[in-house]
């Protein structure tokens, strides 16, 4: 604002002569030696989301499958399902949900020893009332 016209024209010519903005010269120590990223914010956000999804997929793949029929007998599921009060049946359903492990649930695949049909039939019968 307080530059003379000659200074202003000299500054303008210097700014015009500069091809592009300079990359930051300071970096984190952990990032030394890596090239500076010139991604747009949208690209950076998309890359971050993609890496988060990959990490979640790896975490799910590394978790062991839960066999409900080995875990359910250790809970109060069968006893509470036989009771008449709806609150007891809700407690049984809560026991079923907690025995499934953390979400997203990773259950054993149906096989000769793992048959979900009776359990599904029991749940359908409960919800039909």
Task: Describe the model.
With 129 residues, the chain is mostly helical. The protein contains 6 helices and no strands. Helices cover 55% and strands 0% of the residues.
Please supply descriptive tags for the structure shown above.
129 residues; mainly alpha; 55% helix
Short description:
With 129 residues, this protein is mostly helical. 55% of the residues lie in helices and 0% in strands. It has helices spanning 5-17, 41-62, 68-71, 77-82, 86-99, 117-128.
The average pLDDT score comes to: 86
Report the order of strands and helices: HHHHHH
Number of helices: 6
**Shape category:** rod-shaped
Q: For the CA atoms, what is the radius of gyration?
A: 31 Å
The structure class reads: mainly alpha
% residues in beta strands:
under 5%
Number of β-strand runs: 0
The amount of helix comes to: 55-70%
Poorly predicted regions are none
| Biggest pleated sheet | none
In angstroms, what separates the terminal alpha carbons? 80 Å
């Amino acid at each position: 604002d307080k530059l003379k016209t000659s200074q202003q024209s000299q500054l303008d010519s210097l700014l015009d002569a500069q091809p592009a903005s300079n990359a930051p010269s300071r970096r984190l120590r952990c990032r030394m030696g890596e090239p500076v990223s010139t991604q747009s914010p949208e690209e950076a956000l998309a890359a971050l989301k993609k890496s988060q999804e990959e990490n979640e997929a790896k975490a799910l793949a590394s978790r062991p499958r839960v066999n409900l029929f080995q875990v359910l007998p250790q809970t109060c599921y069968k006893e509470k399902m036989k009771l008449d009060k709806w609150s007891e049946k809700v407690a049984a359903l809560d026991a079923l949900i907690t025995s499934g492990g953390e979400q997203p649930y990773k259950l054993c695949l149906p096989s000769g020893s793992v048959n979900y049909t009776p359990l599904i039939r029991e749940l359908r019968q409960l919800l039909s009332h």
